Amino acid sequence: NDEISECHCLVNIDCDKDITLNSYPISFAQIFSNLILNSIIHGFEDWQGPKIINIQVSIEGNKILIDYSDTGRGVEEDIAKNIFDPFVTTKRNTGGSGLGTLVIFNLVVQLLKGKVEFNTKVGKGVHFIFQIPFKTTEDQTIQIPANN
User: Fold this and answer.
1) Residue 86 carries which DSSP code?
2) Is residue 148 domain-resident?
3) Domain containing 87 — which CATH number?
4) What is residue 103's three-state secondary structure?
5) How many domains, in total, are found in the chain?
6) Please, are residues 130 and 65 in contact by the beta-carbon 8 Å criterion?
7) Domain that holds residue 97
8) Quick one: three-class SS letters along 13-46?
C-alpha cells in the first residue's frame, strides 16, 4: 500500500464478489505483490504517462481467469522474451534480483497447475493472463455459487 500511495498510481480491481477460492492464499498474495511491485518499480518509475493497474478476475468454463495489466513503459523485446527466466532484470545495479516473474510463473504453473500468458509493447504497458483450473487436487477447489 505504501508503494502504491507513493507511486500515485490507480489500481482498478474487477472481481465478482461471489467467487470464492479455497487454495493457497499466501501464493496468491505473492503473485499479486510481485506483479504490482514490478509495475511500480519497472513500469512506472520516472514514467510521465498514466499509472494505472487493472486486475480483472472472472470465471471462464472450468477456469478462473486473472487478467493483469498496467499502463507503464512496457518491456523491451530482448527482456520480454526471457521474462520468466531467472535473474532477468533491468534493475540489477539498484537491487533487483530478476526473480519476481520466475516466482510468479512457478506458483501459477507448478503449484496451481495453471497457465501464464505475457504480452507487452514498449510505451503501452504489460499484460499478464493467468488461467487456473477450478480443481487441481482434492484439497484445492474454487466454489461457485449455484446462482451463476
Assistant:
1) T
2) no
3) 3.30.565.10
4) helix
5) 1
6) yes
7) 2-143
8) EEECCCCEEECCHHHHHHHHHHHHHHHHHHHCCC
pTM: predicted TM-score of the whole model, two decimal places = 0.83
Q: Over its length of 148 residues, how does the chain's per-residue pLDDT go in tens digits?
A: 676 677 788 999 999 888 877 888 899 999 999 999 999 988 998 899 999 999 999 988 889 999 999 999 999 898 889 888 776 666 655 555 667 888 999 999 999 999 999 999 999 999 999 999 976 455 555 455 544 4
CA distance 60 to 132: 10
Residues 6+ apart with CB under 8 A from 54: 12, 14, 67, 68, 69, 70
Evaluate whether residue 17 is within a structural domain: yes
Residue 95 buriedness (CB in 10 A; 0-12 / 13-18 / 19+)? exposed
DSSP 68: E
Is there a domain that residue 121 lies in?
Answer: yes
